[in-house]
Amino acid sequence: MNISQSFPAPVGNSAILIVEDDVVNAKFTSMYLKHYYKVETALDGSTALALAQSKKYAVILMDINLGRGMNGLEVTREIRKLDGYDKIPIIGISAFSLTDELEKEIGECFYHYLPKPYSSSELLEIIRKIPT
């Protein structure tokens, strides 16, 4: 079996948006996914919002702790207000430990949460399980 058959493309073969302020992490995540999906990257929340306004993504990977400007929770809330984004799976990603309050917010905002560091197989498995 071809490995790409194990990880079908998201809804409608649309792209995945990676929102990650660390360039190295963004490149690694893109490398994980580019063999299976169309991938675009935003290094900050403002760029992510602009991209989401101009194009509909099937999945968004959102770093919760973006360095400058809005954090990932704020960006996610703004993206959810955009037409067609109320049900798009947004996967929260963070290297920081979670407080109870932050864990509750993440549960309300995100389809899934993935702690860093994660493996390519963990990431692909989460995406594969997204209902189409």
Shape summary: globular
From the alpha carbons, calculate the radius of gyration and give it in angstroms: 14 Å
Q: Would you identify the regions where 5 or more consecutive residues have pLDDT less than 50? A: 1-5
State the name of the first-level CATH class: Alpha Beta
CATH topology: Rossmann fold
Mean of pLDDT = 86
Give a quick account of the main beta sheet: strands, pairing sense, barrel closure.
5 strands, parallel
How many strands appear in the DSSP assignment? 5
Provide the β-strand percentage band: 15-25%
In angstroms, what separates the terminal alpha carbons? 22 Å
- How many discrete domains? 1
Order of helices and strands: HEHEHEHEHEH
Number of helical regions: 6
Can you give a write-up of this model?
The protein is α/β, with parallel strands linked by helices and 132 residues long. It has a single domain (3-128), classed as Rossmann fold. Helices cover 40% and strands 17% of the residues. Helix 3 packs parallel to helix 4. The chain is globular. The model is unreliable at 1-5 (pLDDT under 50).
